[in-house]
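agent> Task received from the user: take the single chain below, predict its 3D structure, and emit structure tokens. No templates, no multimer pairing.
agent> Plan: (1) validate residues, (2) run structure prediction, (3) serialize to tokens, (4) report one or two observations.
agent> Step 1 OK, no nonstandard residues flagged.
tool_call: predict_structure(input=
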Amino acid sequence: MSAVIAAEGLQIVEGELLRTARRLEGGETNLSWVCPTCYTRTHTRREGRRTINLRVGTLDETGKITPVAQIWTESAQSWAVVAHDILSYPQQPTDFAPMLAAWKRSHPEGF
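)
tool_result: status=success, residues=111
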């Protein structure tokens, strides 16, 4: 599960993450931060973008986070649970406005 948040909205309060970079086909660079002990990816950011993709399962407190959408369901593994009570996209959505609106309705207090 991931959340797209403003890059300045993430603060690492303990420890130091490793940063890796990968050049994408279109020429952009995708940056990833991983735990130096277990190499779990915590978040990614396309270079120059104002948002990050945060792996919310890596947070200490996840109880208030509930998904509002699922994407790439067309390629989901047969064992994956596909919810029927949230927005669902078989592939990458072209319009993220419905997801943002659903998030704001579901989390009026913010993240």
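agent> Step 4: summary for the user.
The first helix runs from residue 97 to 106.
agent> Done.
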